[in-house]
Amino acid sequence: MGNKRGIPQAFNKQPDGLELRRATVFDVFEMSDVLIRSITRLCAADHEDDPQVLAEWTANKTPETLRDGVQSGSVLWVADYGGQVAAVGGLRMDEITLLYVDPNHTGRGLGVAMLNQLEQEITSAGHPEAHLEATRTAQDFYRKNGWVATGQCSERNDLSCFAMRKSLHPTD
User: Fold this and answer.
1) In terms of CB atoms within 10 Å, which of 88, 108, 112, 145 comes out highest?
2) Average model confidence (pLDDT) for the chain?
3) pLDDT of amino acid 139
4) Distances 107 to 15, 103, 111, 153, 156 between C-alpha atoms, Å
5) Burial class of residue 154 in the structure, from the number of CB atoms within 10 Å of its CB (0-12 exposed, 13-18 middle, 19+ buried)
6) Distance spanning both ends of the chain, measured CA to CA
7) Residues 92, 130: contact at Cβ < 8 Å?
């Protein structure tokens, strides 16, 4: 039952205790904490513990910025695991803009579950292909889930940013 998405879709089981849902303004403090912890603790290959890089990367991950995003209609998702926000995802049209898992919840399938949800949202919106900009840390995760590299991110000229795409059409 596998397809070009790189995943045997029919056999993916969501972890017990996981609820994927649209984020609300009530989630913004936990979302901010998850984003900052994930970037700080899991993305060291990208920021190399450089305080300036960390400050720039996390500057727009504040509760206020996230609240503005939720209120403006940005498509933000949370993985609620055992009553707490354990992962955060975001979309803009056919692009995944955020996908971070709390370091205390890695290895439980939350990232894959969130990725599947975001891909389904993109497909439901009528887009046959999805795009994202992966960090060095996240590249292997995306490759394992059917994504292919398309080059370095052009707008940011960032050496640790890698453009990726994935066909969401099962016969491509």
Assistant:
1) 88
2) 87
3) 92
4) 11, 9, 8, 28, 30
5) exposed
6) 15
7) no
